[in-house]
Design a protein that fits this description.
With 438 residues, this protein is mostly helical. 81% of the residues lie in helices and 0% in strands.
């Protein structure tokens, strides 16, 4: 709105200026026409006498006409209507300037608010990303909990089935015991009746025959009962082994998922390590270009010292961090023999800055090349390969150390070999068999 008013005022001023210029051009044109008419009249004055020509004052007339024209122009410009219009236009111009200034200040305030809102929007976006990451993490945790709960529910169902089976077996055994007790009482009553009705010899013979038959029946029933118990134990063993196998499979699935997650983390850390190495190389180049003076002619290096004896093979249960640190120290001791001599010989010729620069260069070269692990000497080649440290490069060692120290909670162990699982299953079955027999 203010800009439109300012543009309208500027258009009015342009119109006034064009009108004034056209009026000035018309006045100058009329002045030229008057002069031409005067020259023509002077040509006509040649026919007059010199006295009459002297009496005519053309210059004065021209000056008077020019003065009159200027007075008319000034009078036209100093009219009250023009003055009021000019004052109104000036007031409008001042108001438009003030409104323009206010609009500029308002625009700056709006820009500041827009910047603040953008910052708040970026902050909210960052908070949203953090919340999304947290929700994803919680979803993964919830999925793990759901899987574990499903596994626990399945195991509970298996245990409930085994409990029902054992309860059924117990009820069958109790019913069988009651039936045997009833038969025993019945046989006792029959034997008493027979003993009362028959003579003692016949009763004794019949009792002996009944005892033999009963012992045979009891032995057959005992064998049958033992056979049933063995069948039930075999069923229980199969159920226990199946349940343990399912539990081991679930644990293996969980370990595989965690291994995938850690492999993804490992790839990310490898990419970050590569980026950091690249930045270190660039910084080293800049440092060398900025602070490295032209190298002085170094003296010839002395002959290398004899190699140290090979270290003993490390144990299998050693800590990867301690083994890596010991290898770095040995590498440092081996590679620092010659550069130390070079530094001692160069101290007399170069200042302390070169020594420090040489140490920095050596350190950066080691960072670039990485820690190369030496193989075990030929003397220990005949020993079994299990005693060697299972590592191929410094990247794998660093990966193992990072996996070892980045664990925020104790991770489940990997699936044991088949021999250990068989031994554990046999131990569990033996314990359960002893509990059932007792």
């Amino acid at each position: 709105m203010v800009i439109e008013e300012v543009s309208a005022i500027q258009e009015d001023l342009e119109i006034e200026r064009t009108c004034r210029e056209s009026a000035e051009a018309l006045a100058s044109k009329l002045n030229r026409q008057n002069r031409s008419l005067k020259r023509k009249s002077m040509l006509m004055l040649s026919h007059l006498s010199p006295d009459t020509i002297a009496q005519i004052q053309l210059d004065d007339d021209e000056e008077e006409e020019e003065g009159k024209d200027m007075d008319s122009v000034s009078n036209g410009c100093l009219s009250p209507h023009c003055q009021t219009s000019i004052s109104e236009l000036q007031c409008k111009l001042e108001l438009s300037c003030e409104e323009k200034h206010q609009a500029v200040t308002g625009l700056e305030a709006v820009k500041e608010k827009l910047r603040e809102t953008r910052e708040e929007l970026l902050k909210e976006k960052h908070d949203n990303t953090v919340l999304i990451a947290e929700t994803v993490r919680l979803k993964k945790l919830l999925q793990k909990y759901n899987r574990v709960s499903q596994f626990a529910l399945e195991e509970y169902k298996v245990l409930q089935d085994t409990l029902g089976l054992e309860q059924n077996l117990r009820t069958e055994a109790e019913n069988f015991g009651r039936a045997m007790l009833v038969e025993q009482k019945k046989l006792k009553r029959q034997s008493q009746i027979l003993m009362q009705n028959s003579s003692p010899s016949q009763a004794l013979q019949e009792a002996l025959s009944q005892i033999s038959t009963l012992t045979q029946d009891l032995e057959a029933q005992r064998l049958q009962h033992q056979h049933q118990i063995k069948q039930m134990e075999d069923r229980l063993r199969s159920c226990d082994t199946q349940r343990e196998l399912t539990a081991l499979r679930r644990k293996l699935e969980l370990v595989e998922e965690e291994r995938r997650e850690y492999s993804d983390k490992c790839t990310k850390t490898e990419v970050e390590v590569k980026d950091l190495r690249f930045t270190v190389e660039e910084l080293q180049k800049k440092l060398q270009a900025a602070t490295n003076p032209p190298p002085a002619p170094a003296p010839p290096p002395p002959p290398p010292p004899p190699p140290p004896p090979p270290p003993p093979p490390p144990a299998l249960a050693s800590n990867p961090l301690s083994s890596l640190l010991s290898l770095i120290r040995k590498k440092k001791d081996l590679s620092s023999d010659i550069p130390l001599l070079v530094q001692d010989s160069a101290k007399t010729a170069e200042p302390e800055v070169n020594v420090r620069q040489q140490a920095v260069d050596e350190m950066m070269q080691r960072i670039k090349k990485g820690v190369q692990l030496r193989p075990v000497s030929s003397r220990s080649a005949s020993r079994p390969r299990k005693q060697r440290l299972p590592s191929n490069s410094a990247i794998q060692e660093l990966k193992g150390i990072m996996d070892h120290f980045n664990r925020s909670s104790p991770q489940p162990k990997a699936a044991p070999p088949s021999t250990n699982s068989d031994d554990e299953l046999q131990k569990i079955l033996l314990r359960r068999r002893g509990a059932l027999e007792s």
